[in-house]
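Milestone M4 deliverable, item 7.
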Amino acid sequence: MKRKISLMLAMILMLSSLTNIALAEETVTENESIEKENGVLSISIADAVKLATESDREMWEIDNGIKQAKDARRQGKDAKENAKALMEMPLAALSALEASGSQIIDNQADMILAKNGYYVTLADAQITQLEKSKDVLTKGIEAQTKSLYYNVLLAEKAIEINQAKLNKANEQLRVVNLKFDNGSATKAEVLNGEMAVQQAKTDMDSAVDELSTAKLNLLNRLDLPLDQEIVLTEKELSYVPTEKLDLNEAIEKAKKERPEILTAENNLKLQEIKTHADTAYYTSNMWQNQVAVKQLEDAKLDVPQAYKDVELDVRKAYLNLVEAERALVNMNKTVELARESSRVNKLLYENGMATSLDVLEADTSLAQAEIGQYQLLAAYNMSKMVFDNSNLMGTSADK
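Output delivered:
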């Protein structure tokens, strides 16, 4: 019989191990949405944000803080019940407790606070604010991760544009050399062409270095090995005009959800309870009573100020977005003009009405404008994300 029991236990343990392994593999599969092929990870923006959030230590600390606050709430609830029971006890019973050396009645003011639910309210406020802090941290991680993701995209775009510029410079140098051989171009034009090629190579090398640095920063934020090869799957940045955004709606949403307002209102609730307890325990001529009354007045003033500060912050985020949009629209026009200038100068050169230097300068201006356009598009997306998240967090300039 003992042998059968041992065999059964062994089978149960083995099945349990297999089940745990299967569950672990299932969890890994569920959590890892990124695709890996030949050691290269394909990462979308959502993948990047998910990896960064899961590896953030501050997020773990907030979760632990929420757990502790919930424990404190249970203790506060017990303290409220105990204080209520003590205050309802006959005077003779309380005298007997004091005579026995009991520490139940340690501080009359604290007992009044406990009876009025101060510690329960305090724990509820901490839980709510920690949960709100978790939301804010999540948005902050998203913003930082997207910024690093955009930096990689920008470096890749710079390589693409600089490669096109290098190809044009090489082609222009080839044409100039042919013209120089048949006597229709000067040595100076050849030298200008060679200098343009060399500058294009230098710009290309710089772009490659910037891409390596941008990828390292992203890998570090995602807590991935720094030698991990990655490919970003989302190449195009969107553009949503500000005219499609509702500023008033954003302000109202922020007034309902911003942590600063939540903190001010929670502080007012707590101060009301504390002032009630202090003024009930201390006489009006005592400084504790006067301080409590002053603190309540301050807490009442903090609430409307918090609403005003939040509205100001949302409006500033919107103005920053409008400014970013204006810069982007202007740059789009600049790119159009630079592209047309490049085309015209090439035609003029082919007809002997412009120099090779004119062509090279026009191509360089076009490349710079295209890189600037992509930079401003990324900046606009970041400004829009700040505005979209203004219901939870303020502008980075004020933080």
